[in-house]
Amino acid sequence: MAFFDKPMSDIARDVQAGKASARGLCARALESAEGRGGELNAFITVCGESALKRADELDALPPDAKKKMPLCGIPIAVKDNICTEGIKTTCASRILESFVPPYNATVVEALLEAGAVVVGKTNLDEFAMGSSNETSYFGPVRNPRDPRKIPGGSSGGSASAVGAAAVPAALGTDTGGSIRQPSSHCGTVGLKPTYGRVSRYGAVAFASSLDQIGPIASNVRDIGLLLSVISVPDKRDSTCAGRQFADSEDLYNGDVSGLRIGMPKEYFGEGLSNEVRSAITPAADELKRRGASVVEVSLSNVKYAVATYYIIAAAEASSNLLRFSGVGYGFRASGAKTLDGMYSATRAQGFGTEVKRRIMLGTYVLSSGYYDAYYMKAAKVRTLIANDFERALESCDVILAPVSPSPPCNLGESDGDPLRVYLSDIYTVSANLAGIPAMSVPCKVSKGSLPVGAQLMTSKWREDLLLKVGSAIESGVF
Ligand code: GLN
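^ thats the input. predicted complex w/ glutamine below
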């Protein structure tokens, strides 16, 4: 099920030609965001008034101006850790419950310039820390295919909204899998771009050396279009490389002949459920049938990836989240007698359990005496993991792997067991540690089963290869 029955680019052309109206599309998206989106708790804010006003402005533009807008009139949802001017941006945390940013993130500016309409802000794990979307201050999000199940996290609201066809596309952020894993669980396509492809300006920082903003949509072609729009150069983020993605029709012809697909043996061993394994194997067969060759590759250090990721991500989070002190932004606890007392009461009451756990873990691994033993060691292992990928990608063009070890579990099932949740990130965190692009594409599953995504990874700046291979898998599915 998808919001549109054709690619977004065709719909934008209909709006440009006056065959569809931005207002009509926006009104439909708002209704489903409030209706179906409400049942799933996918949105923290639905922007009824401002979205309709914007849609009317677009409809009133002269045809020449509309023609310059590749997303003319397309309703889009934005994860609630990405700043939107005049619209609350909460990070699903009490500490930012009523924070209204005075500026737009670069990606939001780019979307608006391309003619998109922001219809709402989606729910997430608090500060994007989690893999199930159960750590949100605003309550858990539900899976659109089975509301008893988790949608995955942390961009669970974005994936759930797109999976339920409440909106055609959404933005998410991915620090260790938060775009790919919920996409896998909700039957959507989700891309984490190369680190530095998309500006992070205006995305509330979790772990700055790992965070990337990326698109979630119902098909691979829409992902390519969105990436080309949001990957604008940006001087305000010094890690933004200024390499705008050039989209091209040829990427979607399903032709993968001559491409070498690598399947890492470490990703198909112990711990992978049969449901996921049996969904990925036909994807590999489909690629072979279309002329690709499939080879085995090895990533010998990925067994350390979860430990490495949770040290580095927590360390960076503990530093980034220092700014939430009750002074500059959002919530401030009342009644404290001293400045220090105000800081600690604000943070104690403002942050949830998972965020506090990360801050404590991060502060510990950075503290003198432990820095060398943990943080420094993790930084070195990170380089080994990146080298593993570089080596593997010499003998193949694209890596095919699972996204998540198992299909989505029931809501509440991992309560009180953070380690179990951390381990579910085993196949996704490495791409962030290595800075390479990675995408989740739905596989063919038997009728009535929950969705399963295949993960594609490749060398930096080669998102074109992910779209090409993803498109071939997708055409075997639909
Ligand atoms: N699940 C991972 C974590 O909890 C990744 C989250 C993310 O990518 N934002 O840190």
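The chain has a mean pLDDT of 96.
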